[in-house]
């Protein structure tokens, strides 16, 4: 041993060895049975056949700058709530045109909750008198269906948007983009979960007649509401902005209450609006979704970038879009969430994953920020350490940490933001999504909430598309 070797070893030979095990569990289990401390690492090699794809994409001379540019745009976005208007005005929706969550879909492939929401939209718009009549018309092609994401919009769960529904209007003050989302109905038997009973339609009509106009008057009186600031504060108060929005909803009420009561609307209507929001902890979710959509869209269309700019589900398919591949969807079968069920419901009652609300995870919130919201496990299942682990794992597949969205228990580390297709394929780690569960049968409503992951093959497909787009070397 040379004289300097002892210093380089830094006492390595004087300490007990630390064993790290990966792959199959046999080694770790054998060591544990012998009381040998072992740290297990959840890792798997890239799928067979992806080595060449990874080599091409990682060797793309544009990649480093492209990824840096795309994720910088996402991190610097400044989403602000500026207005509330009917969908027919802001989106130009004509009678018989409905938007829906997730990748493109037709009636024949639509799941139970998607069909239920479309039936409800037909009833709401007066295009059918009964659910049976609505179903026959939809099956005959009477409605035109289009994904929300194709219109700068996101919709929770089924995500169905019809012309008379009122929409949050969110603008990115930094990059100039605009995003839209419908108003949140609350939980239980609601349209977005596929329910369409008389109480659902009555609530939606009240939202269009009273809630939307009062919110519009209040936000116009107030001026732009800084959603980035509210989200950042809510993370400090125990929200993760997907399935827990209690703090964010409370902060919003504080921000807007004076402007709600300052107008000339009937006192009974103002009180009804405040009671509705107070009884709906998820009210802010739709604003968080629109804020995340505006932020993620800022990172779109950067040639050579593997940044995921959308994750969405329609109850049949789970799809992603990637910055460097334009508006192309990469889809696979939607999985069924694993979690907690309401009342007497069980796994057989749940529909496969559905909704555009995974835009929150796309922008570094939701499942990626679960460490900030330990109470979320009471809603989606698991234990508090599981929430911490979920966030910590997401740093392995993301490009950056958000400068304002911070996690107190992780020493105010920024939330993992900017899913990188290459890292997902290389590590085998899939994005963590926490979500509500809709009933499989149309008209059921919500049956539970839990965790789900996208199908791995959609990231491999996106990687292949990125590889095809790498410029050929002369």
Short overview:
InterPro entries: AllG-like (IPR009499), OXTCase_su_AllG_h-dom (IPR024033). The chain has 474 residues and is of the alpha+beta class.
Descriptive report:
This protein is an alpha+beta fold and 474 residues long. It has three domains: 30 residues, no CATH class; 192 residues, Alpha-Beta Complex (v583 fold), CATH 3.90.1700.10; 213 residues, Enterococcus faecalis V583 fold (Alpha-Beta Complex), CATH 3.90.1710. It is 37% helix and 20% strand. It is built from 17 helices and 18 strands. A five-stranded mixed beta sheet has the order 6-8-7-3-9. Strands 12-11-10-14 form a four-stranded antiparallel beta sheet. A three-stranded antiparallel beta sheet has the order 13-18-17. Strand 1, helix 2 and strand 2 form a beta-alpha-beta unit. Helix 3 packs across helix 17 and helix 9 packs across helix 10. The protein is globular and about 75 Å long. The model has no long low-confidence stretch (mean pLDDT 93).
């Amino acid at each position: 041993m040379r004289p300097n070797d002892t210093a380089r070893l830094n006492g390595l030979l004087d300490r007990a060895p630390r064993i790290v095990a990966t792959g199959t569990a046999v080694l770790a289990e054998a060591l544990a049975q012998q009381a040998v401390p072992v740290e297990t690492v959840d890792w798997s090699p890239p799928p067979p056949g992806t080595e060449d794809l990874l080599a091409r994409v990682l060797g793309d001379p544009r990649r480093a700058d492209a990824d840096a540019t795309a994720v910088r745009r996402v991190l610097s976005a400044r989403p602000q709530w500026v207005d509330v208007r009917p969908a027919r005005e802001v989106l130009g929706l004509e009678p018989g045109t409905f938007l829906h969550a997730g990748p493109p879909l037709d009636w024949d492939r639509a799941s139970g909750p998607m069909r239920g929401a479309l039936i409800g939209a037909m009833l709401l718009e007066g295009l059918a008198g009964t659910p049976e009549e609505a179903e026959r018309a939809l099956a005959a092609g009477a409605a035109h269906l289009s994904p929300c994401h194709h219109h700068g919009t996101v919709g929770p769960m089924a995500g169905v948007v019809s012309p008379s529904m009122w929409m949050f209007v969110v603008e990115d003050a930094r990059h100039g983009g605009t995003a839209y989302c419908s108003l949140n109905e609350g939980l239980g038997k609601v349209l977005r979960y596929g329910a369409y009973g008389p109480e659902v339609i009555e609530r939606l009509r009240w939202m269009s007649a009273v809630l939307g106009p009062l919110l519009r008057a209040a936000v116009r009186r107030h001026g732009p509401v800084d959603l980035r600031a509210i989200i950042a504060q809510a993370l400090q108060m125990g929200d993760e902005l997907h399935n827990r929005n209690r703090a964010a909803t409370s902060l919003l009420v504080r921000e807007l209450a004076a402007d709600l009561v300052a107008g000339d609307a009937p006192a009974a209507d103002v009180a009804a609006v405040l009671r509705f929001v107070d009884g709906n902890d998820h009210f802010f979710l739709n604003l968080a979704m629109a804020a995340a959509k505006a932020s993620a869209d800022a990172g779109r269309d950067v040639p050579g970038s593997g940044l995921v700019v959308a994750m969405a589900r329609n109850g049949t398919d789970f799809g992603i879009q990637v910055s460097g591949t334009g508006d192309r969807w990469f889809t696979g079968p939607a999985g069924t969430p694993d979690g907690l069920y309401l009342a007497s419901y069980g796994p057989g009652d749940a529909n496969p994953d559905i909704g555009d609300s995974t835009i929150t995870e796309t922008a570094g919130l939701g499942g990626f920020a679960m460490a900030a919201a330990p109470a979320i496990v009471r809603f989606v299942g698991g234990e508090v350490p599981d929430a911490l682990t979920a966030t910590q794992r997401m740093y392995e597949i993301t490009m950056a940490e958000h400068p304002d969205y911070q996690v107190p228990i992780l020493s105010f580390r920024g939330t993992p933001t900017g899913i990188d297709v290459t890292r997902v394929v290389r590590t085998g780690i899939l994005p963590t999504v926490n979500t509500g569960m809709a009933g499989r049968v149309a008209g059921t409503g919500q049956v539970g909430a839990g965790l789900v992951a996208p199908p791995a093959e959609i990231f491999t497909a996106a990687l292949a598309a990125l590889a095809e787009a790498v410029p050929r070397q002369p």
